[in-house]
Write a structure and sequence with these properties.
By secondary structure, this protein is an alpha/beta fold. Helices cover 39% and strands 19% of the residues.
Length: 442
């Protein structure tokens, strides 16, 4: 067997084995495997499966440890240490506190030189009060498993390539992937993949989610006696109420798929006989795409400003993290669907009302974010009180590793099949161009 590192190339005139030295590439059909990769695929997938199986017991312990000690956004210190220490033990080059984020980390593994880079994500944060009721313990180990699987396949079959796993904090609140994108953590990736648990089904699907913007208005008035001299006060609570009701009246005039939900917060010093001098109105706004969302946000901002003018209060409006919608990269989705149809259960494509900061990743590079089911979840759903216990079940662990295998299969093709990688990039660039999104040449 040749000891050189290489990429699998459909134009090779030699017998299509993994060790073949290759020359140039040519285009093939949109979802067909190139001949050399098609021949190599069983051996590559076998290596992925074996590596994930070998790590299963360790990953089960890590998953349960995350469940027992859930940590919320940007506080995932123990979780980050547990996961990054494990990757270091497995021979990955680990860097901690990346891009100025205390709980973000990267784990890198490379075989040969000049190969493509496949990225994976491991989310770690839990929900306040209800732990891992979004199943991020499973997302964490799925990212680890996929990275281990692809690394093993590259090494065992001498395919030049690089695996980059990012430990990404604060998905639930804080948008941890956004500063990682801005800090260049994703720049070297040819594609990025991750998975997310969902409902009580056995199988996996590609998915779309909403874009989201959080908007906060703080109103500053002046206190006065509510009975003796209310006319001398400026009522910050009235301002928040007026804005709340004004935003509510927008609902019939925006797309039915959009969602707007808000809460009003006050101060511990509020009293019924004092005109409130401060209030805080917090809104989450979602729509199918960022292009639909942005004009709605402007109308919400106008309602907030008008409420301040109506009451004589001052207002400070701030925009918290913006989550883009998930842009589905067709070549990645097609191959994921093909693989899961052959090896698991493919559930097609789903549309979820939720949002994720991974949407921002899909606007920066080719990426895929499938969902997988938890067979014993019953009637429980993500963010429900009892979903954390469902995410800790043995059957959920097995599903997460099956999902990891599926994205690892996509990942190894990105690295080993040049024509597929080029087609994926071309498709994504056309998609971004159609949306008017600028991007860096690869």
């Amino acid at each position: 067997m040749c000891s050189c590192t290489h990429e699998l190339d459909p134009s090779s005139t030699m017998a299509p084995t993994i060790a073949s030295t290759t020359t140039s590439s040519k285009e093939v059909g949109s979802i067909l495997l190139s001949p050399s990769f098609h021949s190599a695929q069983p051996a590559l997938i076998s290596s992925i499966k074996q590596a994930i199986l070998a790590a299963s017991d360790d990953l089960r312990k890590i998953s349960l440890a995350l469940c027992e000690n859930p940590e919320i956004a940007y506080e995932e210190r123990n979780s980050a240490k547990l996961l990054s220490d494990y990757m270091e033990k497995e021979g990955f080059k680990v860097e901690r506190n990346i891009c100025g984020l205390e709980t973000a980390w990267s784990a890198e593994w490379e075989f040969g030189t000049g190969g493509a880079t496949i990225g994976f994500n491991s989310e770690m944060d839990a929900l306040p009060g209800i732990g891992h009721a979004c199943g991020h313990n499973l997302i964490a180990i799925a990212g680890v498993a996929a990275a281990l699987g692809v690394a093993a396949a590259l090494k065992e079959h001498k395919v030049a390539g690089r695996v980059l796993l990012l430990g990404t904090p604060a998905e639930e609140k804080g948008g941890g992937k956004i500063p990682l994108l801005e800090g260049g953590a994703y720049d070297s990736m040819d594609a990025c993949l991750m998975v997310h648990p969902g409902y009580a089904v056995d199988g996996a699907m590609t998915m779309s989610v909403n874009a989201k913007q959080q908007v906060v208005a703080e109103y500053f008035g002046s206190p006065s006696h509510a009975a003796g001299s209310p006319h001398l006060g400026k009522n910050a609570l009235d301002a928040a109420n007026i804005a709340y009701m004004s935003i509510h009246t927008l609902r019939p005039s925006i797309v039915p798929e959009a969602r707007m939900f808000g809460i009003i917060r006050g101060e511990s010093t509020w009293a019924e006989n004092i005109i409130p001098a401060y209030s805080k109105l917090c809104y989450g706004i979602r729509a199918p795409t960022s292009a639909i969302l942005d004009p709605i946000v402007k109308r919400v901002e106008a309602c907030m400003t008008a409420a301040a003018q109506a009451t004589g209060c001052e207002v400070k409006i701030s925009f918290e993290e913006h989550y883009d919608d998930l842009q589905l990269c067709e070549p990645l989705a097609e191959y994921f669907g093909e693989y899961t149809r052959d090896t698991w259960v493919n559930l097609g494509h789903g549309i979820a009302g939720a949002s994720t900061d991974f949407g921002n990743v899909t606007y920066r590079l080719p990426a895929l974010h499938p969902a997988f089911g938890l067979p014993e979840a019953g009637s429980s759903v993500p963010h429900a009180q009892d979903y954390a216990s469902k995410a800790a079940l043995s059957s959920s662990h097995k599903a997460a590793l099956k999902a990891a295998e599926s994205i690892a299969a996509v990942g190894i093709r990105i690295v080993a099949d040049k024509s597929f990688r080029e087609r994926t990039r071309s498709s994504w660039e056309k998609q971004m161009t159609a949306l008017g999104v600028s991007f860096k040449a690869k």
